[in-house]
UniProtKB/TrEMBL annotation:
Domain Cation efflux protein cytoplasmic: 217-296
Species, as recorded: Corynebacterium godavarianum
Membrane-spanning segments: 18-39, 45-66, 87-108, 120-142, 163-182, 188-205
Keyword Membrane: yes
Gene3D superfamilies: Cation efflux protein transmembrane domain, Cation efflux protein, cytoplasmic domain
Protein name: Cation transporter
Residue intervals of the Cation efflux protein transmembrane domain: 19-213
Membrane topology qualifier: Multi-pass membrane protein
Recorded family membership: Belongs to the cation diffusion facilitator (CDF) transporter (TC 2.A.4) family.
Length: 314
């Protein structure tokens, strides 16, 4: 089995370090939030702690997905294993939904049978520390995910940032309990947290499912491809039709037809195709491009189906 190029090996190590950071932060915040929940007896703090447990499990699954997605293409997976990252996002979304149901159930139960909360000052202190840790790690993961086009990293980072807002909501709710003495605010906060987590899980699942359907490249990447093809066509006297794109995790696939003058030799057309492959890879950072060469005026079966214009976003 061929190994990854050195540049991709370096990138893979960076991504795995990000996931180890997420795992470490999740473990630390679990301890902080569990202590806050145990000291205060607050179902609001407990709901926040449950979500952090989900963060930890999701980070472990994400690390596994990153390792699997880095495996090069083989006889059974000709285009590699990049889509493994989307399965990680699906697992994370599913776990979030389970956590939301558990939190909402606990909140309803506490509404029916109210219990007083104690030592809120200690609980609030631990929760603030946990929120700061999650915010720093989440911001780093989202930035890393966007930079390295990692669905796993970005999804985990967004989950951590969502957890920050959840914790902020819990802190505000518990502070109001301390100021007003209204114990009913504790389960109400838990229910609001559960509803927020439910929405987050839905968005993650929806995004992962759409990605598994091989969506076209994002608008900004499509613009880069179009710009390169426009310039290349003008400079070399060729035309492009039936341009199609797909994103597979960190991988990018582009398929296109290059129409050339009929008198061109195969070798000359092939040299231009090599330039296109290298140019698109350079424009996107990395990409696999399949170029089909035709003489001007020749119409293939793909023409009527996919149209004779450049990428449909133009």
């Amino acid at each position: 089995m061929p190994e990854l190029p050195p540049s991709l090996q370096k990138e893979q190590k960076i991504l795995e370090r990000f996931m180890w950071l997420s795992i470490a932060v999740s473990l630390l915040t679990i301890m902080l939030k569990m202590v806050a929940a145990w000291v205060t007896g607050s179902v609001g703090f407990m709901s926040d702690a449950i979500e952090t447990v989900i963060n930890f499990v999701a980070a472990v699954v994400g690390l596994w997905a990153l390792k699997l997605s880095a495996k090069p293409a083989d006889a059974n997976h000709n285009f590699g294993h990049s889509k493994a990252e989307y399965f990680s996002a699906q697992v994370e979304g599913s776990l979030i939904l389970v956590a939301a149901v558990a939190i909402i159930y606990t909140g309803v139960e506490r509404l029916i049978t109210p219990q007083p909360v104690e030592q809120l000052g200690v609980g609030l202190l631990f929760s603030v520390i946990a929120a700061v840790l999650n915010a720093a790690a989440g911001y780093a993961l989202v930035r890393g995910g966007k930079r390295y086009r990692s669905a796993t990293l970005e999804a985990d980072g967004k989950h951590l940032l969502t957890d920050v807002w959840t914790t902020v909501g819990v802190i505000v709710g518990m502070a109001l309990v301390a100021l007003t003495g209204w114990q009913v605010l504790d389960p109400i906060v838990a229910l609001l947290v559960g509803a927020n987590i439910l929405l987050t899980g839905y968005k993650l699942l929806r995004s992962a499912i759409l990605s598994l359907l091989s969506e076209a490249l994002p608008e900004e990447e499509l613009a880069k491809v179009n710009s390169f093809l426009d310039t290349f066509a003008e400079d070399n006297g060729v035309a492009f039709t039936s341009v199609r794109t797909a994103a597979f995790g960190r991988e990018r696939l582009i398929s296109l037809v290059m129409q050339v003058p009929g008198e061109w030799t195969v070798s000359y057309a092939h040299a231009h195709a090599d330039e296109i492959e290298a140019g698109i890879a350079n424009a996107l950072g990395a990409a696999e491009t399949i170029v089909h060469v035709e003489p001007f005026g020749y119409t293939t079966r793909t023409g009527p189906i996919f149209g004779d214009s450049l990428i449909n976003s133009r």
